[in-house]
Amino acid sequence: KRLILIGPPGSGKGTQSPIIKDEYCLCHLATGDMLRAAVAAKTPLGIKAKEAMDKGELVSDDLVVGIIDEAMKKPSCQKGFILDGFPRTVVQAQKLDEMLDKQGVKVDKVLNFAIDDAILEERITGRWIHPSSGRTYHTKFAPPKAPGVDDVTGEPLIQRKDDTAAVLKSRLDAFHKQTAPVIDYYSKKGVVANLHAEKPPKEVTVEVEKVLSQ
Ligand code: AP5
Ligand code: ZN
């Protein structure tokens, strides 16, 4: 399947992605994760992206379209994919359509993680991440077995630099202004499925599975 996950920061995209991936064996491309890896490695791309990311603003369309274009060439992405955090502007959505048109394929479903802004600050400020696996925890909603430590590897967990209440405000602003129109773009194509993203993670997974089995 060819899937897109859209939702505001903290809506649960990264939490549901690995579950979908394990079940459908797709390629999982998360532009935020790819950009953070580039920033950590201080690549030219990372150096260009860092300032916008730290402020909670979007990185330029050209940069993200470039990384997606490159990543989609992987053989594992030919039969299907999950895009988490892309497209995030209408321009990015149009570019993706151009890429897919060339292959004669289409997006099957856009999962819209619909949720009220008021819930997101607690989710974002309580998040802890295991960087190498992408496993995500939450101090209250999904605590690790031992505080600050990954359940599987025992390695330390980290917090994201942009996971503060102040930066969240800009990220939400970018979401409403630049990304909400992308949901309309796909609604017109009739491929959007709305999820109740405020429910507990397992219940959201059930909703996702229902949509994907259709
Ligand atoms: P990105 O990494 O994509 O961040 P984001 O969109 O802000 O989304 P998050 O990763 O914060 O949220 P999530 O939905 O994955 O939440 P999660 O599942 O972890 O982007 C970061 C930056 O990169 C952007 O600001 C921008 O600068 C740049 N960028 C990326 N893509 C770009 C693009 N295409 N164009 C331009 N710039 C781009 O959950 C959050 C927490 O809540 C966790 O602790 C989790 O355990 C908990 N949780 C999850 N689900 C539930 C639940 N159902 N109930 C209770 N708790 C839950
Ligand atoms: Zn994420």
UniProtKB/TrEMBL annotation:
For the keyword Transferase, the answer is yes
Q: Domain Adenylate kinase active site lid, which positions?
A: 127-162
Q: What keywords does the record list, in alphabetical order?
A: Kinase, Nucleotide-binding, Transferase
> Catalysed reaction(s)?
AMP + ATP = 2 ADP
Q: Which domain of life is it from?
A: Eukaryota
Going by the record, the broad EC class of this enzyme is transferase
EC number(s) of the enzyme? Answer: 2.7.4.3
Give the GO molecular function terms: AMP kinase activity; ATP binding
Return the InterPro entries for the record.
Adenyl_kin_sub (IPR006259), Adenylat/UMP-CMP_kin (IPR000850), Adenylat_kinase_CS (IPR033690), Adenylate_kinase_lid-dom (IPR007862), P-loop_NTPase (IPR027417)
- Matching Pfam families, A to Z? ADK, ADK_lid
Complexes and interactors: Monomer.
What the protein does comes down to: Catalyzes the reversible transfer of the terminal phosphate group between ATP and AMP. Plays an important role in cellular energy homeostasis and in adenine nucleotide metabolism.
- State the family it belongs to: Belongs to the adenylate kinase family.
Q: What is this protein called?
A: adenylate kinase
- Per the UniProt record, the source organism is Clitoria ternatea (Butterfly pea)
